[in-house]
Amino acid sequence: MDGGRDRLEDDSTARPRRTAPADEREVRSLEAGLRRYGPFVAAIGIVLGLFVAFRSIELETVLAEVARADRRLLIGAVVVYLLSWPLRGRRYGDVLGTMYYRVGTVPLTAAVFVSQLANLALPARAGDGARAYIIKNRWDVPYLTGGASLVVERLFDLATITALAIGAAGWLALSGTATPIELFATDGARRAVLAASVVSTATIGVGVVLAASARYGSPAGLGARLRSYTCRDRLETTLQAGFQFVGHLQAITRRPRSLASVATTSLAIWSLDVVTAVIVLAAFGTGLEVLPLLAVGTLAVSVGNLAKVLPLSQGGVGLYEAAFTALIVSITPIGASTALAAAIVDHALKNGVTLVGGCLSAGALGLSVSGLADERPE
Hints:
Layout: H1 25-55, H2 59-68, H3 71-97, H4 105-119, H5 129-139, H6 143-175, H7 187-214, H8 220-228, H9 233-251, H10 256-283, H11 290-307, H12 319-331, H13 336-365, H14 369-373
Helix pairs in contact: 2-13, 3-4, 3-6, 3-10, 4-5, 4-13, 5-6, 6-7, 6-9, 6-10, 6-11, 7-9, 7-11, 7-12, 8-9, 10-11, 10-13, 11-12, 12-13
């Protein structure tokens, strides 16, 4: 799978290369050993993580509930969810574009699929490291840039989910469908909303800090002044990398058009994710009208996704279902068994698409453990 890269010159992200001092040769030798054998250990960890993640889902319950649900609607939900994946690739390309790298939508969609597959096994979105590896080796995007682009993407994800949750809660309150008190009617709902609130507050805080710091220009100047007072090579390199990373994060805040594009695409991606869950809910015959069902589904999906950000399980399995079910039960007459079944099926369908798409994408990209073993990080 081919993708073109056109790097634009930018003095603020220039990276001088240095020769390792002689007294670091032993450390370099140890790092070489870790590079060669580390990938094999990582591969075993991913396999074990996937086993734990899928074992925690009661497959018999899922199959029984799918058997009574409307299969046409479930197929429709899969189709809707598939539509979000090219948008993910396009959005990631826009994020990289603000950092002076251009890669095609199709190959980036495959890279996103692979990283999301890894995230099913590793908690706290640690699987995103696979994407940084892919774009480094395929399109020569430095790890520092790849890491910053992933942070930017994650901030947009969380900010968009937060906005959807606030909008849905506001609509439910204004329409009289559910009051704010009902959101805390059960212990599960309270815990889910509290977890979502913590994640949302942290996201908004980071976004505000980045936007405010961008007004003072690039951190390159401050970095140069601080480096002038340092005499140790390793400390100077660390400072340089840190300020370059912050500069990458700030890049999108200086480009209003790119900011609007990424924000719009993020809204489209998560709207399709919400519609997928709403269709799954409808497949179980909830009896709710279209607008209340859409608002309830939006709130449940948003809170569920915010809750599963907490690194407590592989792929968020269990956290998403618990938060989704608690919200549905607390604000609607839908029974707990139906809400739980819908949450399980919704998450299983999305993870299934990710699993199949990730495996196909890994094959198309020609990824292998031997390729990882030959990696030479900067």
